[in-house]
């Protein structure tokens, strides 16, 4: 009798702690932070490295830069597919990090070893520079390709893997998931801020060996830390190709297109054994939209005779997976124009900064590229204020644990982004008015202080804190459970398309605004001769139209309904919920 309590106490001590939770965050965030430190720290100054160290012509260097950026934005689709279908998120992240590490090591070695780059330029009057030879370029391109492939495995999986550490069926953990996205973006923003300041300064003032070596070493340490946390992680097993399931539903619906619809949705096919591996967090419930897809779940006489053939008969859950992705499409598209507006910071806003007075003292002036510090600091500040002040206040008004829904959050971001480009246009007018102080002709420094650009940079940072994080929350929450890495890849795809849209818009405006005497809204050599303010206001108008489109889509949007078994102290409680809150814990309106 005396030993019984002691035995019970020992049994409790042997009970392993639940996997996942807050304890895993440092290991996961370290991986994301170092990836951003590496790609931004190198990418921000990449054009300088290629032209000054490898002696590439400017156009060739620019093409190398855009090819790398485009590839790194598309590879997340491949990484997400492998994670959701076969490898799982942990092993995909680990393997991708190792590939990234090899790529960064190759770039670092090319900066350290004289044999991997051409000799310095001849200091004579002709300044003859020998370009990198085929072997040196091969090392460069191979290293960049490995870095792009590595980024494709890290970017879509890290954010989803971190959110996976919180059990959606446990109300105590599910309530923390929305906060995770704020923390994730804060860590990412802080890493970018460190890259565009400290790492770039080291590259310019200490040397490229250290400038690339620091991110490479940081990546190595993060891989060790990420692997060390393996016993603590909550790992969700891959359940086969999600794209195969989507195609099966489409084929089955097409093959039964002539079959009459059922009056009662309860007659549609359900199979707990088939759906079990892909619906650990809960079953998707039937929705009334896109009823033609429901035909894939109608049981015919032939289906009743044969064993289930997923190319002819699919469950309601699998049909609703496809519906969920289709419903997400219009909201995904709405984010493209915001990225197009945001992209101008690295193009025309940068050119504005170069033409303005950047002196802090008689001997020191701010680098034009450092103006992005205003964007990063305003974004980080907004995230903190949002998490600590805005959400508690909004929670009292709405009753939602997250304060407002992600659709509301995205809407606020759209409005602030509209203000950013509107303000940018008026600042450009002010900038050009000060140009005559220095003669007005040529791309000369104008008298206006560069700090006049701070409001538009800050507004873009605030907009990103609302819109981009809301976008992440939306993709993770509304994507089918077994496709969340793929959904995170859609976030990066929207960024890629937004940048391509910016290129297309600039090309069209430059072509169709050309006038007599070489006049143009976007001149090649001198902003003072152009009408950049018109371009900013054109983007403002496009954003207003896009915002109206978004409001329509958000109002019509149907949250995925899900049947969740909520973990309670006395057991479990199953219920069908409109998944406006992560994990289906809270009900949320469909209206913005």
TrEMBL record:
Gene3D superfamilies from the xrefs?
Answer: MFS general substrate transporter like domains
Q: Where is this region: Disordered?
A: 1-21
Q: An example Gene Ontology cellular component term from the record? A: membrane
What domain of life is recorded for the organism? Eukaryota
Q: Does the keyword Magnesium apply?
A: no
- What are this entry's molecular-function GO terms? transmembrane transporter activity
Q: Give membrane topology per the record.
A: Multi-pass membrane protein
Q: Which family does it belong to?
A: Belongs to the major facilitator superfamily. Proton-dependent oligopeptide transporter (POT/PTR) (TC 2.A.17) family.
- For this entry, the protein name equals Uncharacterized protein
Organism, as annotated: Linum trigynum
